[in-house]
Structures are given as C-alpha cells and as structure tokens.
Write a structure and sequence with these properties.
143 residues; alpha/beta; 2,3-Dihydroxybiphenyl 1,2-Dioxygenase, domain 1; 2 domains; 4-stranded mixed sheet; 23% helix; globular
Length: 143
C-alpha cells in the first residue's frame, strides 16, 4: 500500500525560469539534479516541497499543451499553506500570475490560484478545521 505522494512531475520549457518560480514565489528549495546516465546531460531537477514530497522537473519540453476546462487528465496541483493571505502577498510581490485572489471555497478552505511558467495551474490552500478534509484526517487519527 502507498503511504503518501512522493512527487509530481512536469516537463518544462525553461528550467531556470521554472526553478525561480518555485523558489521565489512558492518558497520551495532546489534539492538536487540528476543527469542522464548515458550522456551526463542535465535531465531532472528535484524541488523540495516539505516532508517527503518533491516536484520533479524534466528538461527539454518543446510542445505546449494549454490547459482547457474540458481536457481529460491533469487539472492542477494543490499546495498546503499556513496563511493564505501571506501566500497571496508573496505571489503579488514576486510578480507571479495572479489567477484568482484568496476566497473561501465550498469546502470551507481558503484558496488562491496562480500558475507556473509552463502554465501548470497551482492552487494554494489553507485548510480549515471545518473542512471535510480536516474532519477526515482527524477521524483517521482517532482510528
């Protein structure tokens, strides 16, 4: 059985720009790089997201796949934050895309939205004690 989500992986067009976004806007840290074993060329960069979680970035993307609401498959990645207002302030201060300002969702959590340089939609969420997510987590802890 699984015990968590280890990483999300994205192909990127401009590695330095993408690393800058995840570090400067979201506060992540570049953890390490892996080169292609056969050539030694840059291949993968891991960005540390806390706990045992990473974002895995692959070099060399060339074909854009713009998001549309009716696309099948990947929709967005959601990142937990302690303070949604501080997260939004950082998005604004770093000049990152401001897709949707903080608001409370139907699940009682606070959320705001941005996207990375390759258009990956990113939800930032401050979990409320009244949310179904938190109630489920608490029920699991209690056994």
């Amino acid at each position: 059985m699984t015990n968590g989500i280890s990483h999300a992986a994205f192909n990127v067009k401009d590695m330095e720009k993408t690393i800058g976004f995840y570090e400067e806007t979201l506060g992540f840290k570049k953890a390490f790089e892996i080169s292609k074993p056969e050539t030694g060329e840059p291949w993968i960069v891991y960005i540390y997201g806390g706990g045992g979680q990473f974002i895995e970035l692959f070099y060399g993307a060339t074909k854009e796949n713009p998001y549309r609401d009716d696309n099948i498959g990947f929709f967005h990645i959601c990142l937990a934050v302690d303070d949604i207002q501080e997260a939004w302030k950082r998005i604004v201060e770093t000049g990152a895309p401001q897709d949707d300002a903080p608001k409370q969702g139907a699940d009682h959590n606070w959320q705001c939205w941005t996207h990375d340089p390759d258009g990956i939609k990113i939800e930032l969420m401050q979990i409320s004690s009244e949310s179904p997510q938190m109630k489920f987590i608490e029920s699991v802890k209690q056994g």
